[in-house]
Each structure stands twice: as C-alpha cells, then as structure tokens.
C-alpha cells in the first residue's frame, strides 16, 4: 500500500460538506437508543476501564457493530464518544470499514466516484456469534460481517487490558478477517475518488471538547503534519487525558494514520489509504493495535516509553 501525504487531505470546506451529508443521511433515524447492551467489561488495576457492547435497536444505516464505550483512564476520565451529533455512526472505539466489496460497514452515506456522498441501501452489520474466552482482563470473540443475508467476512477479535503504571493502561486489540467465500476487497472514500479520506479499520472517536486536542508523533505535530502518514505511534491529547495508538507489528505499522482534530477528534489506522486492499480467501488480514490510555498530557519521551512497554509482548 502506498502512502499519501497530508497535502492530499480534503479542504476544510470539502470535509465539512461530506460530514454534513453524512449527518443528513440519518437525519430521519429513530431516536437514539437509551443504552447499549453490554457484552463484556474490561477491568485492570482494580477498576472497570471499558465496556464492550452493541445497540440492538440501532438504525441499520449506522452499520450496527460491537464497540468499546465508555473507555476511561485509570482516573475515570472518559476518552471515547458514542453517536455524537456530528457523526451519528461514530461508535466509541472499534473496527469499521466503509467499503467491503461495495458494502458499507462504517455507517452513514457512501462516497461514490463522480457523485460524492450518496445514501445507499448497502449497509452491513458486524454480528457477535460467540466467545472463545471472556474474563475481566479481556476476551476473544467470534463475529461475522454480513449484508443482505450474506456473510462476507468472519472475524476473530482479541482484546486485552493491562495496567502499565498508576496513571496509564494499555488496550491491546487484534482483529483477524477471513473471507467467508472467495477473496474480498476493502476500499475507502479515497479509493473511490475522495483524496485524503482513506479511513477504515481500527478507529477511535474521542470526546469533543472546547478546544481541539493536540496530536503528535515522534517527529511531527499537528493534523496536517501527521494525517495520511505512517508512524510507529501517534498521540492524541485532550483535557486531562492522552491516547497513544501504535501498530504492534510491522504490517500494522505500514498502515497510514487517518487523523481529525479540528472538525472532530478521531484517529484511525487505515487499511485502504489510497488503493483497494485485496484479502485472499486463504490469507486472512491480521492487524494488531495497542492504545495507551493515560491520565494527563504525556510528552513524547513518556509516550514512546509506554508504547514500548505495551507492545513488548
């Protein structure tokens, strides 16, 4: 996969237009459900740091799927957001892909080449099918990705919570996608004609605050400098919290980062940044991402040290 640079990102007007269109696509959706059904809780250092669940009555146009929310620091500061008004299909932290063989597992409108964002009846669902393991410190889960009654992918998802210090813990998430039949291809708005919008994969929606969060890597700082680039880790720092996302293996580290801070706070690892990704039937797609969740604002040296510790296993 080739890497586009931050200069390929859409302008603020393009981004705002696409976001408004996405929100408009679900403007007539049913009322927001009262609460998610909790499938599992993650505990470390003697406290619950995340809940993992689904919304059984979620509008199908939001691409229902299991997700982590709320996720908190060890000090109790929330670091995820669920169904915000700007993007109703943003569901905490989890796996979301806008184009799997033309089916939308991200939610909202689909970007169509030469047409822009279009409301299509093409949304899929990630459905929990069982546990291989479930305990306080993590779980191993089986899922299917289905649309129109067909299963496109089977997934194994492993999630673990580990304390690092008295002020930081690590969320370790590995997902393995195996085509249910023949090969499938994964795309993004960027591969469909919207440069800079190569999102899709692991995505973390952070809380929107009065000021935009800071974002930095080991050698760059600011949305324009880090968006669309590869880096061993990337940090998002808000009011009293820092998230440090890192690819935990060589393949994952080659995926560029999708970054938003000005319009909304979110970071994701991009599977199809500038060209479609083929997943052969006999060679599953595997990605492992580790996220350090810390109280306070970390500097580069501390962020790098915590990532090194969290990805050592």
pLDDT < 50 runs, ≥5 residues = 1-33
Content-based structural category = mainly beta
Question: End-to-end distance, in Å?
Answer: 26 Å
Number of helices: 4
Question: What Rg is obtained from the alpha carbons, in whole angstroms?
Answer: 18 Å
Beta strand %? 35-45%
**Overall morphology:** globular
The largest sheet has its strands arranged as 8-9-10-11-20-16-15-14
Got a strand count? 20
Mean pLDDT over all positions: 91
Largest sheet: 8 strands, antiparallel
Features:
313 residues; mainly beta; disordered N terminus; 7-stranded antiparallel β-sheet; 8-stranded antiparallel β-sheet; 4 helices
What does it look like?
The chain is mainly beta and 313 residues long. 10% of the residues lie in helices and 43% in strands. It has 4 helices and 20 strands. The chain has helices at 12-24, 223-226, 250-253, 300-310, and strands spanning 37-44, 47-54, 67-71, 93-100, 103-105, 110-112, 116-118, 125-135, 138-147, 150-165, 168-179, 184-187, 201-205, 214-216, 233-238, 241-247, 257-260, 266-269, 277-279, 285-295. Strands 8-9-10-11-20-16-15-14 form an 8-stranded antiparallel beta sheet. Strands 4, 5, 12, 13, 17, 18 and 19 form a 7-stranded antiparallel beta sheet that branches. Strands 1-2-3 form a 3-stranded antiparallel beta sheet, with no helix packed on it. The longest helix is centred in the first third of the chain and has 13 residues, at 12-24. The protein is globular. The model is unreliable at 1-33 (pLDDT under 50).
